Amino acid sequence: MAVQKEATLVRQIIRAAGGHAADVRELVAEHGPEAVTAVLVDEIVSRAPHPVNDVPVLVELAVRSGDALVPRRLAVAQGAPVRRAAPDDDGFVAMRVEYELDELVRELFGPCRERAAGTRGTTLFPYATSGTGHIDTYFLAAQQATATVLAGCTSAKPDLNELTSRYLTPKWGSLHWFTPHYDRHFREYRNEEVRVLEIGIGGYQHPEWGGGSLRMWKHFFHRGLIYGLDIEDKSHAEEQRITTVVGDQNDPGCLTELAARYGPFDIVIDDGSHINEHVRTSFHALFPHVRPGGLYVIEDLWTAYWPGFGGDSDPGKSDLTSLGLVKSLVDSLQHQELPEDSGRSPGYADRHVVGLHVYHNLAFIEKGVNSEGGIPGWIPRDFDALVAASSGGAA
Ligand SMILES: C[S@@+](CC[C@H](N)C(=O)[O-])C[C@H]1O[C@@H](n2cnc3c(N)ncnc32)[C@H](O)[C@@H]1O
After folding, report:
1. What is the pH dependence described in this protein's record?
2. Structural domains of the chain in order of their starting residue, each with its CATH number
3. Which of 12, 98, 119, 275 could make a disulfide contact with 62, Cβ separation 3.0–4.6 Å?
């Protein structure tokens, strides 16, 4: 298993942002406003949508901490992502947005707050400083560019469908229609410091493709750490809060090592090879490393029917397929109801699968403690006997 670099300061910032205001102050005192601001600007740049202003402008983000003011300029123009302006960039500064550092830390990395007003100061600069042009042109550019930057300064819940287009992941809109299901099952984890592992970063053997879904999860889980496993080197997809690992999802040793290093995971998503044997190996190796209350997700169940992926076109012969695994989990969920002489000794999945949601090509498996106890042995296992026992002698 080859491992790429790992984040540290951002993890401390996320932790402090979920705590008391004093925790953020202590962290800033320890690391200094410049270092903390650098992490925040990285995050804002990655969350900001594509600019729409065709007149390029600069937006100054001024971050205040006590007497210190850390100004950072962002270049905003249609056709390129928002980026940090070069020190010698003498473009037109259209707007200054000023935040208190602790406020911005909590806005970006704290539990989500819907309040949008009263969190920042703004200064709209006169268009005349740009030298030429008409006031309407610059006013519009300033407005659009500021809106773009401010959209990166929030942790409000994004629209997953929109994020699939922005970050280029095929989880919605062409082959797959997964995002509404993801939104339904993942939204309750958004305010948590989740660790999400996705098997399959994307792009297969292309050296620069892939990483779209990791970026989407990074944006959606604004307090999360995102890990991607791929058989190919996908280190180009690394960024703040995204770690990539090279390894084979069909190698239990590799998966155990990965989980020991980065787990337990709140969510694991299998979007890797979709070879049936691999899907089963990964589930058995990684499900024990999902924390109670977490989710294990399997995409692309269609390969269960295709021999080219080790599947079988006969649904009755699913013993070795991904769908066979999913179907077997229904029995795991209900195992406490089996007759005592069934000969089944409860396995790990029996003891820990507490919910199963199956959609077209997609399954969500809920982890927990599956020991509510079966229907007691003294309850009749025969309909007529049950009616008689339940009718107070009237039957
Ligand atoms: C469908 S793509 C992943 C797409 C990505 N999750 C997204 O939504 O944008 C599948 C990826 O799985 C990787 N893969 C194939 N076999 C694998 C294996 N045995 N172990 C780990 N990754 C594998 C491929 O290299 C490819 O990049």
Report:
1. Optimum pH is 7.8-8.5.
2. 2-151 (3.30.1050.30), 160-367 (3.40.50.150)
3. 98
291's enclosing H/E stretch is strand 290-299
Residue 274 annotated as catalytic: yes
Nearest residue (by CA) to ligand 1, atom 25, is 204
User: 230 CA distance to ligand 1 centroid (A)?
Assistant: 6
Tokens of 279: 């899907």
The rounded percent of the chain whose pLDDT value lies above 90 is 88
CA gap 323, 304 in Å, rounded: 6
Question: Which amino acid appears at position 247 of this protein?
Answer: G
| pLDDT tens figures, 104-115 | 999 999 998 766
Torsion angle (degrees, nearest 10) of CA 324, 326, 329, 330: -90
Catalytic hit among 185, 219, 274, 289: 274
- Cβ atoms within 10 A of the Cβ of 321, count? 24
Give 359-381 pLDDT, tens digit per residue.
999 999 999 999 999 999 999 99
- Going by CA atoms, what residue is nearest to atom 4 of ligand 1? 202
Q: Which residues line ligand 1 (CB under 6 A)?
A: 169-171, 198-204, 210, 212-213, 229-232, 248-250, 271-273, 278
Asked if the model's pLDDT at residue 116 lies above 70, the reply is: no
